[in-house]
Amino acid sequence: MLEFIEVSHSFGDKKILSNISFTVNKGSIIGLIGANGAGKTTMIRLATGLMKLSSGIIKVAGYSLEESPREYQAKIGAVLEGKRNIYLRMNTIENLRYFAYLRGLSSNYITKRIEQLVASLQMEAFAYKEVYSLSSGMQQKAAIACSLIHDPELIFLDEPTVALDYESVNLIYQYLHELKKQGKTLLITSHDFGFLNELVDAALFLENGTIRFLNMGETKSSIKDIYLMMSKGEKT
């Protein structure tokens, strides 16, 4: 579903990613872990087309962003850190309609899809309130809904549980599991290791511009233990 092929990226003289290659299978949930500044958000920005690659190829469902941008973008959705994919002066319904129209979706589909998302994420109580007036947890739910308006096959989530209370985290956890049952593929960055540990099938550990792939079904270690061991240079 998602392929990074010899991807490198630099900011000036500083190399962030160095010849990274990996494949994420359809229907899997992958945790992207690493220290602050390791390049996790950069990877998501590159994969969503918000930043231009220095070199290499990124493909989604066989489409590359450079050669087939429309088909590529139709396959993906993203929840960006800091609620960058939502307008604070609009309410949740207005945001959903705005992003739906940007993608050229039909009016009938938009109405039904919005009803479905509002119900699934339990947003009925605040759907018509301006986003800036909502709690951080409510804002995050709205951002997640906007990323899903076009029913993408691959969803990137950059720190999706930031500022969420326990009840909201549990709701998001259950909803992401439901997305997996629907065959969706998820790539999640998070420092909430407990959240990731219960959710992911595999982890990508990013350090010094390189990636290590870990199948969680082949280890008894937790995400936190793996992170600590690999940060110290130990083998899992």
Helix and strand topology:
Blueprint: E1 2-11, E2 14-24, E3 29-33, H1 40-47, E4 55-60, E5 63-64, H2 69-75, E6 76-79, H3 92-102, H4 107-120, H5 136-147, E7 154-158, H6 166-181, E8 185-189, H7 193-199, E9 202-207, E10 210-215, H8 223-231
Parallel strand pairs: 3-8, 3-9, 6-7, 7-8
Antiparallel strand pairs: 1-2, 1-4, 4-5, 9-10
Helix pairs in contact: 3-4, 3-5
Strand order of the largest sheet: 6-7-8-3-9-10
Task: Name the CATH homologous superfamily.
Answer: P-loop containing nucleotide triphosphate hydrolases
CATH class: Alpha Beta
Flag low-confidence runs.
none
Structural key phrases:
globular; alpha/beta; 236 residues; four-stranded antiparallel sheet; Rossmann fold; 36% helix; six-stranded mixed sheet
How would you characterize this protein structure?
- With 236 residues, this protein is an alpha/beta fold.
- The chain has one domain (2-231): P-loop containing nucleotide triphosphate hydrolases (Rossmann fold, 3-Layer(aba) Sandwich), CATH 3.40.50.300.
- It contains eight helices and ten strands.
- The strands form two sheets. It has a six-stranded mixed sheet, with helices on both faces.
- β1 (2-11) and β2 (14-24) form a beta hairpin.
- The longest helix has 16 residues, at 166-181.
- It is globular and about 50 Å long.
